[in-house]
Design brief:
- The protein has 403 residues and is an alpha+beta fold.
- The chain has one domain: Up-down Bundle (Outer membrane efflux proteins (OEP)).
- Helices cover 68% and strands 9% of the residues.
- The strands form two sheets. Strands 2-3-5-6 form a four-stranded antiparallel beta sheet, with no helix packed on it.
- It is rod-shaped.
- It starts with a helix and ends in an 8-residue tail after the last helix.
């Protein structure tokens, strides 16, 4: 039992101390966020959507090309040269261009939010990896302390001051803490692999180490956002785009006319020279009055309006929830600070009392358990406070803030 406990503690220490791989890359929080933004596939997808919207805007602004027609007939004049130019002017064109411009703006806002979301995921994953590393470090120290307590119980038993029951209880406790240390060490490796996936590093093995410590944010660094959230602005731009698209389809019942200009020439038995030809073609909506596209555009407009209402509700709910979580985590963190010192003193005093025979083993185990739980709770609350602050920053992001 004693040798197995030592092996478990040693294995946990090795798992925490060095990642598997030939070379370990030290990674700060800022570097992790920057790498996720530069290498992550999500950014490439968002950029592709933005480029597609920009291309659609350019297409909407493009004027149609003229058409050149050349003909030969046996009737005089025999040569005909005509140019057809669609007159893409007026309200139909303006509605199409404004719809594409609003869609481009909505795509741009969503791209900005996607970048902020990528940075948020990298920041949160880095925080979780730091918390896992701290929990593993604490578990490793707890395992060492439990093994030391087992040795003290064994020494006291050999001196006739303790029973075999104390040694067995201390040995079971040492084994449990060693198992916890090994499990927490595995959690560190998993957290590092998750971080590597986000930053674009091959995740076959843990090849990064964390440079930053796990520290609570100072009060001055807590984000406070004001204004319209970014996703609400994006949904409003989408609604504007769909309204102009509906207006375009309604005006599309009468499509633009086509101006025809050219000349006719070569009359072997008659007049010489070129005879001008001018005409105007006007499509007549007799068989198709564009009802299908109008209905589709109306449905898209209604869907965009519902999406905007939902975005406003979700943004308001998300801001309130994130602010409350941040306040609660900050309050727990403040209470944890006052409990840490007391729990450590109680654990040290109980261990000294047990060594001197003034306290039973159960008192030491209970004091160590309380100190361990408070310290782990402090680590969890630090991570929760940082994550809540990052969440508040994300949900309150506005168009005027560069993430």
């Amino acid at each position: 039992m004693r040798e197995a406990t030592r092996l478990l503690v040693l294995g946990a220490a090795l798992l925490i101390a060095a990642p598997t791989g030939a070379s370990a890359q030290s990674l700060t929080r800022a570097q992790a966020i920057e790498s996720a933004l530069a290498r992550g596939p999500r950014r490439a997808l968002a950029a592709a959507d933005t480029l597609a919207a920009a291309a659609q805007y350019r297409v909407a602004r493009t004027f149609p090309n003229p058409t050149l027609t050349t003909e030969f007939t046996k009737d005089a004049p025999q040569y005909h040269v005509l140019v057809d130019l669609p007159l893409d002017l007026g309200t139909f064109r303006s509605a199409r261009v404004r719809s594409a411009a609003a869609a481009r703006e909505s795509s741009r806002l969503r791209f900005v939010y996607e970048r902020a979301s990528i940075a948020f995921d990298a920041d949160v994953t880095y925080t979780k990896a730091l918390a896992a590393r701290e929990r593993a470090r604490i578990s490793r120290l707890n395992a060492a302390a439990a093994d030391s307590l087992r040795q003290i119980a064994s020494t006291r038993r050999d001196a006739g001051d303790a029973s075999d029951l104390d040694v067995e209880v201390a040995s079971v406790n040492a084994g449990q803490q060693a198992n916890a240390a090994a499990a927490d060490a595995l959690s560190v490796a998993v957290a590092l692999l998750d971080l590597q996936v986000l930053v674009g590093v091959a995740a076959e093995s843990s090849t990064v180490t964390l440079s930053d410590p796990l520290e609570p944010l100072p009060d001055a660094a807590l984000p406070v956002g004001t204004g319209v959230p970014l996703l609400v602005d994006a949904a409003a731009a989408s609604l504007t785009a769909s309204e102009y698209a509906l207006r375009q389809q309604k005006r599309g019942t009468w499509l633009w006319p086509t101006l025809t200009a050219g000349f006719e020439t070569h009359d072997p038995g008659g007049a010489t020279g070129a005879l001008p030809v001018v005409g105007l073609s006007l499509p007549l909506p007799l068989l198709d009055r564009n009802r299908g596209p109008i209905l589709a555009a109306t449905a898209e407009r209604d869907r965009a309006a519902a999406a905007l209402a939902l975005a406003r509700l979700e943004a308001q709910s998300g801001i309130v929830r994130a602010a409350r979580e941040r306040t609660a985590a900050t309050a727990r963190l403040a209470r944890d600070r006052t409990l840490l010192a007391s729990a450590d003193r109680i654990a040290a005093m109980s261990l000294r009392a047990y060594e001197e025979g003034a306290a039973p083993l159960a008192t030491v185990l209970e004091a160590q358990r309380a100190a361990r739980e408070i310290l782990l709770q402090y680590v969890d609350d630090v991570a929760a406070a940082r994550i809540a602050a990052a969440t508040v920053s994300l949900v309150t992001l506005t168009a005027g803030i560069r993430p």
